[in-house]
Amino acid sequence: MFGYIICVSFCFIMKLMNRKELKNITLIFLTLFTGLRFNVGADYLSYGYIFNTIKSNQNIRIEPLYWLINKILPNYILVCSFVAFLSLYFIFKFINYLDEKNFYFILFGYVSIYYLQWNMSTVRQGLAISIFLYSTIFLFEKKYKKYLFFILVGGLFHKTLFLAFLIYPIFKLKIKDRFLIISFFCLFIFRKEIFSILEFLILKYRISYSSYILGFVKNQLLNSGIKKTFIIRVLIYLSIAYLSKKQILKTNYKVYVIKKIACFLMLSNLLLQSYGNVAIRAIKPYEIFIVLSFFYLIKYLTRITLKLKQISIMFITTIYFFYYVSIGSMYYPYETIFVKKNYENKVIKLHPIKYYKTRKIFKDEGYSEEQIDEFYRIRGVIK
């Protein structure tokens, strides 16, 4: 855990110092912590395999901008470092715009809740999410063409971000929440018919991710009740809607934008919750936006002093951070590329804890020993 303790401690110290001239140092530290990791993160091996596949000029179905990065950069370490820097750069820009005075507090929230998953594991979608966060600056500023441009760019890293195009007319046409809620509930009522159209398009055009959407999901549509995450997001929306009525926030356009995206998140959750994991992952950008916005709004909640609220939240999110490390199969121990040579002469080129943890997960999911061995073999873990 030593590496993760250093990471969290560094971010905590930056929060205590709270000096804007140290933001670039923080960006460099987090970039290096991510970029120089070795076999850390659930998708680290898979992205390494993707890199090798692209370099060997083999065909692979992946978004064009991520393919281009892998094609141009000479090695996988540089790919990891560049993607980490780009993603964190956009996140820093967003947080700085959202609340410059409490920059380090919001950053600590991001690092302790999302950094492990979206900067060390699911990095391709993590980059798309960071671009979405940055693009919301242009929603705040009502520069909608720039918003659309960055959504297009983000979608070329991970196609799930194209859903964010639907946010544009909500702001451009100033659609009221009441109309949005009615529209989405109508879509929910006719979800079976929508699925039939979606199924037809997937099969006709051979859209990827079909395995997530077809099959078992079709049966789920018959009994798709209200799920806990939807209820939580309803409560979040109602809280923000209530907060926006406060006299001090009535003219705060940031709160207006946050409320609209919270409404979009809530209703998208209702509509997509039965369409499988990728559909739910498609609404992650809006969840992360709302959670980070909550860190901005916390100063307007309750009469407790801001410092006490911040310390309490940081304590809770720190516990979550280390819990996430412990339950993940590929986070502990944290290793850097400098230990790579230690594995060169070993039969299994992966830390034993990670190897047996991931192997057990595959077995529990029903994969055969041969399938598991093949997974490790093509990723260079075993021969």
Structural overview:
There is one protein chain. With 383 residues, the protein is an all-alpha fold. It has three domains: 1-174 and 305-344, no CATH class; 175-301, no CATH class; 345-378, no CATH class. It is 69% helix and 0% strand. The protein contains 20 helices and no strands. It has helices spanning 2-17, 23-35, 44-55, 64-72, 76-98, 103-120, 123-140, 144-155, 167-172, 177-189, 191-205, 210-213, 216-220, 228-243, 253-272, 277-281, 284-297, 306-327, 352-364, 369-378. The protein is globular and about 65 Å long. 32% of the residues are buried. The model is unreliable at 209-226 (pLDDT under 50).
List keywords for this structure.
383 residues, mainly alpha, single chain
Number of helices: 20
What is the molecular shape? globular
* Total discrete domains: 3
* Low-confidence residue ranges: 209-226
Strand proportion, as a percent range, falls in under 5%
Radius of gyration using CA atoms only: 22 Å
| Through-space gap between termini | 30 Å
Main sheet summary: none
Structural class: mainly alpha
Number of strands: 0
Helix share of residues? 55-70%
Average per-residue pLDDT, rounded, comes to 85
The sequence of SSEs as H and E is HHHHHHHHHHHHHHHHHHHH
Q: What layout of secondary structure does this protein have?
A:
Layout: H1 2-17, H2 23-35, H3 44-55, H4 64-72, H5 76-98, H6 103-120, H7 123-140, H8 144-155, H9 167-172, H10 177-189, H11 191-205, H12 210-213, H13 216-220, H14 228-243, H15 253-272, H16 277-281, H17 284-297, H18 306-327, H19 352-364, H20 369-378
Helix pairs in contact: 1-6, 2-5, 5-6, 5-7, 6-7, 6-17, 6-18, 7-8, 7-17, 10-15, 14-15, 15-17
InterPro entries: EpsG-like
Pfam families: EpsG
Transmembrane segments: 72-91, 103-118, 124-140, 147-168, 180-203, 278-298, 310-332
